[in-house]
TrEMBL record:
Signal peptide range in chain numbering: none
Chain intervals for the UniProt region annotation (Disordered): 168-188
One Pfam family recorded for the sequence: SabA_adhesion
Organism: Helicobacter pylori (Campylobacter pylori)
Record-given protein name: SabA N-terminal extracellular adhesion domain-containing protein
Amino acid sequence: RYSTLNTLIKLSADPSAINAVRENLGASAKNLIGDKANSPAYQAVFLALNAAVGLWNTIGYAIMCGNGNNTGSGPGSVIFNDQPGQGSTSITCNRYEATGPGKSMSIDEFKKLNEAYQIIQQALKGRDGFPELGGQGTKVDVEYKYECKQNDSGSSINGGVSQFCQAKNGSSSGSNGTSTQTTNQDGVTITTTYNNNKATVKFNITNNAQELLKQAANIMQVLNTQCPLVRSTNDENAAGNGSPWGLSTSGDACTIFRQEFSQVTSMIKNAQEIVAQSKIVSENTQNQNSLDTGKPFNPYTDASFAQSMLANARAQAEMFNLSEQVKKNLEVMQNNNNVNEQLSGFGKGMTNFVSAFLASCKDGGTLSNQGVTDNTWGAGCAYVEQTITSLENSIAHFGTQEQQIQQAENIADTLVNFKSRYNELGNTYN
């Protein structure tokens, strides 16, 4: 302890050493928040986003949803376009069963999930991801559509489904059977046009990590709170189990995919904390003028920069640790061979959910300029495999910068607490 303290106190009184660590801190900050390919933080955020989209692409086609109450054949259908349906680019919510947690997902909850999914897909479609973590977000126009088809006797069941394609609260106007409704949600103006039982929703959002992670969290929030049933592969009118995914689990989606929901949710939370820490790095940039090495340096009076330096170093260290944690969240799924290929009908051995689904895609399941194709369903199709590789490469590339950040943190901490550290040195020596 004496040797370590002695070294840190000597370095903390040496302007050349301080200049060097601040320069290193500036370089590692540029890597973390000013770069994409070589930033472990950026790639970890991207992996969390892709995992959420990939999870929905894998299971969405089988989620039971509708506006029923266990009466007759139900009130009708709401068809959501640009969704990974089985062999199609839409998902139809037409279940007659009662809605709610552990039952069929309600139309309102599916609308929440759909909006979040559309925002992520359209923000990333045809673009090179989202801006680097220290960059400015760009405006993206979002547009999505859905359609309502009510049964003849459907209006008596939970108010039918036509209600979802009609203007409600908010300002509305229109003619010739067309009505437009404008609402404001979280500061975003949303315009919905209704015509012939079809709805077109338009608004714009900021394409940045914080906004997209918020939408990924919304997807998982709907899944984790609603825990919808999945349909059987043999009978769409019967609730199924985990067998289409090679899982021996049964029950609602939260039970079938307990591990997968948990780890993807954790990935998103860790990624959101990465973004929070990136703001601290940006606010405490170390690009100030270097110390004059030709003048004596007094750690007691000349270290006004130390608090900012310490905040920067701690935030960078936390960003790197969280990036590794996102990778570990994924590895929980990778290291669990819980997928029986024979049960799901595509092999004979045991494998893991990441290899079998999240990081896989059928031919034509994903195209760079098209969010959803008719072959997206039942697999991740969200570049998860490529992002895993990019994250691993960026962590390796970060290399010695992790040690440099730790050294900067130690020196900054010594400067901030110089008097107590100096006293501690004397006490340790005695």
